[in-house]
Amino acid sequence: MRVGFVLGEMFAGLRRNITMTLSVVLVTMVSLFFFGAGLLVQQQVSILKGDWYDRVQVSIFLCGEDSPAEACPEGAITASQRDALRAQLQADPLVDEVFYESQADAFRNFQQMYDTSITANVTTEQLPESFRVRLTDPSRYQEVTAEFVDAAGVEDVPDQRAILEPLFTVLGTATQIALGLAALMLLCSVMLVSTTIRLTAFSRRRETTIMRLVGASRALIQLPFVLEGVIASLLGGLLASAALWAMVHFGVARLRARPGFTTRLIDTHDVLWQTAPLILAVGLVFAIGASLFSLRRWLKV
Amino acid sequence: MITFEQVSKVYGEGHRPALAEVTLQIDRGDFVFLVGPSGSGKSTFLRLVLKEERASRGTVQVAGRDVGRLRSWKVPGLRRQIGVVFQDFRLLADKSVYENVAFALQVLGKPRHVIAQTVPETLGLVGLSGKERRRPHELSGGEQQRVAIARAFVNRPAILLADEPTGNLDPETSVGIMKLLDRINRTGTTIVMATHDDDIVDQMRKRVVELRDGRVVRDEDRGVYGSGR
Ligand SMILES: Nc1ncnc2c1ncn2[C@@H]1O[C@H](COP(=O)(O)OP(=O)(O)O)[C@@H](O)[C@H]1O
Ligand SMILES: [Mg+2]
Question: Which fold has domain A57-159?
Answer without folding.
Answer: Alpha-Beta Plaits (3.30.70)
